[in-house]
């Protein structure tokens, strides 16, 4: 990796391609990403892990010799001789020989079933052996050992043990308390951890059967991975007489020169100031220093912060600065949550002004910020614990100035060592998106950990330049959704064409058309297929049904609160049988009828409407359903009649179009059977009335709704919902659910509560009026279509063969119903 | 009634429908033998386009139900299934260069009647 990085850096510094670069490697493939080695077992291939393909070397005129290690260096003649017999001369030689696994001298390490964890070949051997193993053991509870343990889990060995000689895991990074939390967390994930264990022998004839420990205990095992540390590959350096450390490593100076000034050593084989730097970031920094030095710029390596953050088997572990400052030189703040398995400790100077270092287990979101705070000696807020816990209720204390408060030299991307100043300069030069900044500076391209900070810097720098950052809709409308809504409202515009004439240009597209359609529907609640607005609706809205695989549609009649009479159930059954529809109960207590041909839709709805059904708006960014539990009418725990209230609410907001779909629920007691707290607005009965929760979400990023107001009577509850929904409709970005909207809202729930409950903006009367106008204007849009021959005509597949169905539609049978033929 | 009115340069112009049968700034699907052709009316530009109805992405007969639009002035259609967009000038997929292009056809209007030009040689 470090060798590759050196090539990359030297190439970018060579203005003319005069230098000849030759790379010798012992392994059979080009440099690969060892940091993510364990992903090899999680499905990545050896190719995925390559830093760059062999073709990259060709393109950059680098001669690459693989599977051909250098065996001899002649320092007088300045030549190297390789295993396959190649002799090359050099001006400068860079040794990036890395390290090998350190195998402790335990009797029996040569038995079958004992592995080391270092190269892709090692991993291939492990993979081939793993199917016959039931019980795996890893010797070494450090960073690499835990990685190896994860590899065993990934290989399907559920019974995996980790043996550590020291009294704690990761002894170089974390403290005893942190280790206990980590051990706990890892054992929940199936790893059994044994600390304070000294392995004295590996048992078995030819093949391993177990381990013997110095304390006379023993452990059965049929596969063992040794990952007890690394040993620098300095044998070649020794051979040609370069100075090496007595515990290994090629001695280098600040320019990474060995005792021969024409030979450099970088990465894990280099010994600087008595220390081996076994992380990738310092290795890259060394590559940078050597590339500069050879091309004539003076840079030096003066040690490197060994702060690190990683995810071990799904658990965040980070340590930064000096995590082990003694108590006499520091004070510490510790936070421990044994329930969640979170441990955080920071050490601060005795005067409370600066952060010295710390450890984070289980939740390392704050790592980047803390690291920068420590590294740049940023002055801490008056309550230093705020940097760990965030500013808490009651005080308005500021939890530090954030990434924008850092000095320009602060290193944001430590993999590529890109400073805050460099990133801000790139933004000022016009690189105003993350991709542009990545391309221009390389920040965030390696591990990606700094990406949130880079994003904050982009926004912050643009704001500082006086640039107003807003989300314009698309190339046709240079307004945000909120601005456009206000304009359309003010100017009383009723169609997309008018909106485009007044406030846009060009012809519109699939982005702005549905946005404007949604705004028009939210403001006026006219029939969405009228005034030429039919073709600006999303396909589902245009045909008032949900398009499904194969091009048929599904039909969802409204079943308010999930309550339905047997007679109506019968109608649904009859319609489904008549039109051969697949039926399924939805998550929102309704019935979905799938597989309807476009031309059958008006006939289907004619029958449903005749039986008293109306549109369920399952196709729209609109109110979907208000789910309910059975409530006090039947349930022995029910406090109020949740079904009646759910029906009342669903009928009030039916057909209401919004920036995104809206879901709701009413629960009759705190048992919460209707799951109201996962909805955009949810209501739960209390002894005294209703509690109103808002901005919850299921889906891919579930979020609990937050209590907006408690113990409301039904009328007040509805008024609050009116205000809440109208405020959301008027201010949200396109396709933003209430949860995301709230997350982005400055001031969050406190602000929202002030607007909706305390009327801090003085708009609640308007909001209620506007909502009432929409409610009063509601009509079932399917009823309007069914009654209009002109509108019905649009529900045909062929314009020149009305009634003919699409012959390409095909179905298959599954469990006595039809299903769409799968697409390719 | 014959659907074919003229043949020139190996292009067969067939009568598809009348102008008012096609919604402004929208599309319809035209049956031509066993083929399905999507016909689009860009009313704001007074332009007409036609393409295959099948979206090549998942091979769905759906483009006629998609949303029309332009990108830097170039007319395009967005498939209702996954919003892949195709140029109606040359048929290439704008949103995903790796996706197959679609076939486009010329359109002619005469006396409020819409004609689509298909390759005479490959008529089915």
Automatic annotation (TrEMBL), chain B:
<keyword id="KW-0479">Metal-binding</keyword>
<dbReference type="InterPro" id="IPR017941">
    <property type="entry name" value="Rieske_2Fe-2S"/>
</dbReference>
<keyword id="KW-0534">Nitrate assimilation</keyword>
<keyword id="KW-0001">2Fe-2S</keyword>
<dbReference type="GO" id="GO:0046872">
    <property type="term" value="F:metal ion binding"/>
</dbReference>
<dbReference type="GO" id="GO:0042128">
    <property type="term" value="P:nitrate assimilation"/>
</dbReference>
<feature type="domain" description="Rieske">
    <location>
        <begin position="14"/>
        <end position="116"/>
    </location>
</feature>
<dbReference type="InterPro" id="IPR052034">
    <property type="entry name" value="NasD-like"/>
</dbReference>
<dbReference type="GO" id="GO:0051537">
    <property type="term" value="F:2 iron, 2 sulfur cluster binding"/>
</dbReference>
<keyword id="KW-0411">Iron-sulfur</keyword>
<dbReference type="InterPro" id="IPR012748">
    <property type="entry name" value="Rieske-like_NirD"/>
</dbReference>
<protein>
    <submittedName>
        <fullName>Nitrite reductase small subunit NirD</fullName>
    </submittedName>
</protein>
<dbReference type="GO" id="GO:0008942">
    <property type="term" value="F:nitrite reductase [NAD(P)H] activity"/>
</dbReference>
<keyword id="KW-0560">Oxidoreductase</keyword>
<dbReference type="InterPro" id="IPR036922">
    <property type="entry name" value="Rieske_2Fe-2S_sf"/>
</dbReference>
<dbReference type="Pfam" id="PF13806">
    <property type="entry name" value="Rieske_2"/>
</dbReference>
<keyword id="KW-0349">Heme</keyword>
<keyword id="KW-0408">Iron</keyword>
